[in-house]
Amino acid sequence: LTCEPVQAAHVKEYQNPDGDGVFKLTVKNNSNRPVEIPALLRDSHTKNILWEESVFVITDAGNHFFPGHGHARDVEPTLLEPNASVSTKLDTLTLHGLSWPQGGWRLHLRFCLGDKATEGSYYYFTDHHEPIRKNAQKKPSAIVN
Predict the structure, then answer these.
(1) How far is CA 76 from CA 84, 89, 138, in A?
(2) What is the per-residue pLDDT across 94-120, written as a single tens digit (0 to 9) for each?
(3) How far apart are the C-alpha atoms of 22 and 15, rounded to whole Å?
(4) Which one, 29, 32, 35, 132, has the greatest CB density within 10 A?
């Protein structure tokens, strides 16, 4: 499991040098045989990976789930073929229950999938990120296309 910040479309010096809270998460099978990943759930009918059901974020304020968490039915583990990987982009500004800082602050996030975790961070600048976050909070999903 790895994560990397997604560069913002419009970078503003000293405000969003690390992006606007979107991270690309990747799960990779580095072995030469298929691996079942029980924590990475997928819909048993459509076979779509249910990232928001599978990943949660730990911050200093506790555990946080994405808006799409808790809605899935009929799920199964994801099977990754040898050397295959799957990725998604998740918007952390959709997370609820965080104590969003005032002013400028580096947010440290631990993305968790079962017993695996990866860490990321970005600079949160209130004047820039607060309007974006308020819009993001209205979204039913954290997945960014």
Answers:
(1) 18, 21, 29
(2) 998 888 888 999 999 999 999 999 999
(3) 15
(4) 29
Residues whose CB falls within 8 Å of the CB of residue 65, separated by 6 or more in sequence, listed in order: 52, 56, 57, 95, 96
- How far is 79 from 105, CA to CA, in rounded Å? 38
**Amino acid sitting at position 5:** P
Q: How confident is the model at residue 19 (pLDDT cuts 50, 70, 90)?
A: very high
| Mean pLDDT computed over 67-87 | 96
Please give the domain boundaries of the chain with CATH numbers for all domains.
2-136 (2.60.40)
18's CB contacts (< 8 A; 6+ apart) are: 5, 121, 122, 123
What residues pair up with 2 in beta bridges, in sequence order? 26
Terminal-residue alpha carbon distance, the chain: 20
